[in-house]
Design a protein that fits this description.
The protein is an alpha/beta fold and 403 residues long. The protein contains 16 helices and 9 strands. The chain starts with 5 loop residues before the first helix and ends with a helix.
Amino acid sequence: MRDDGLYAAMMRRGMTRRTFLQFSAATAAALSLPVAYGPRIAKALETAPRVPVIWIRGQACGGNTEALLRAANPTAANLLLDVLALDYHEELLAVAGADSSSPLAGLASRYPNGYYAVLEGSFPTGAAGAYCLIGGRPAVDVAREVATGALLTIAVGSCAVDGGAPAAPGGITEAGGIGKVLSGGNYIALPGCPANPANLAAVIVHQLVAKEAMPTDMAHRPLAFYGNLIHNQCERRPHFEFGQFAQEWGDQGAQKGWCLYKLGCKGPETMANCPDARYGEKISWNVSSGVGCIGCHSPSFWGAMGPAYRRLPSPLPFLPNLTTDLIGGAMVGGIGAVAVVHGAGMTIRFKRYKAQERRAAAKAAAEAASVEAAITAETPAIAQAQAQAGAAPASAAVGTEER
């Protein structure tokens, strides 16, 4: 494929100008940028070069690759597979054996302008790394070699970030995440099981446009994606605040879409943008489909957040019986108390207003009655005066007519 820029590659793959602008606007939204940044991203992408991507997979189920291939349109898969030069990915190679490892040889000379490294899965160090080999070499060594020379390294999925399931208590492979590969430096962590491919696409576009990595927290997670609790964005949060919880799977509360906290939902302690980014062409996510969050974006979630359907423990260790729902109930009670006070005050104010209204009406009625009585009392005198005033002009008129 001709290497004449990212925009040209998109157009050759059938992406229209309209779709390209939609892609840029969607990326701006994913990056938590104002809508006005969409045209800026589009302009920057028009001149951005096509950057090779080396995708290394360690111990993993392949869920991140599956999510990538089933991303929404315009897809992250289009960006990686068709637009960028995905030069190495084990599951997508058309060759096997020794030829499959050739793209990993001489990376510096093969890619003088640099490349991006994407790591999926955990990397075992037990038994000298023999639990996972790539081309006969320990996967951790291959990943370290690839990541060290990359313009940017992206750890995709919880296994790549902190070891995930292979690193959970009881494992024997001594597996770990990117910390086993790099001791620090230039990398982005996208935890999740799987990570959302929209976030991956946004990270790459940001790097292409800004020429620098996204702002991250201390765990190297982009703040745009991991800066807010799932609980704060969840569509079922109003039910939490009003104490409406599903007690069993399939009960009346579950059917009504009530909060799943008591059935083990880890949303109150998990930072991610799942309710907004969603999965399956942005159609749904766990809670929308009736299953609570399992906390897969949290550090070491296999050990720290399990079992998946166990309710979270007390947020205050010195008060073991104080659970999050009790705190929520107290908040609801506090809000209810405020509402009662406010309602009582409004009732008093309303009664005072009605009393004033009645007094004003009574005063107006009394004044009207007084005026009417005065008019009634004065009516005979007024009638007599009018009669006298009317008689004089009449005689005068007659006299004038006679003259």
